[in-house]
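User: Could you go from structure to sequence for me? I need the amino acid at each position, not a summary. Structure tokens:
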């Protein structure tokens, strides 16, 4: 029998288990690496925000088009976060699933959240 590869989505239980595993991985990164990745994420989002401000300021476009183009260039900051593998606080909120699943302690979740939140704002 051969393995058939499908493009179907994973069932909810399997997705929950995968997210728990990702949460454990994120929460067990050493604090200095976590902080460095959090600072990188904050810088990427800040770069996107600065690019947004540059693009929408006195562009001469109508209001709707101005906001649309501004939103598109801001997304570049988020794309940089994904490409760099940086730690963004909003992304790390999902590690609560690993805590609920009993794979992490509350202290590990809080440590992750505090380090990443501080790193995102330290730009």
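Assistant: Here is the amino acid at each position, in order:
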């Amino acid at each position: 029998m051969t393995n058939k590869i499908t493009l179907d989505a994973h069932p909810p239980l399997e997705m929950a288990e995968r997210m728990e595993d990702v949460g454990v991985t994120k929460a067990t990164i050493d604090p200095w690496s976590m902080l460095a990745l959090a600072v990188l994420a904050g810088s990427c989002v800040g770069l996107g925000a600065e690019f947004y401000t540059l693009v929408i300021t006195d562009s001469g476009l109508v209001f709707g088009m101005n906001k649309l183009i501004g939103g598109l260039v801001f997304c570049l900051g988020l794309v940089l976060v994904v490409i760099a593998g940086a730690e963004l606080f909003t992304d790390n909120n999902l590690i609560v699933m690993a805590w609920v699943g009993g794979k992490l302690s509350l202290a590990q979740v809080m440590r992750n959240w505090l380090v990443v939140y501080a790193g995102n704002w330290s730009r």
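One structural detail worth keeping in mind: The mean pLDDT is 90.
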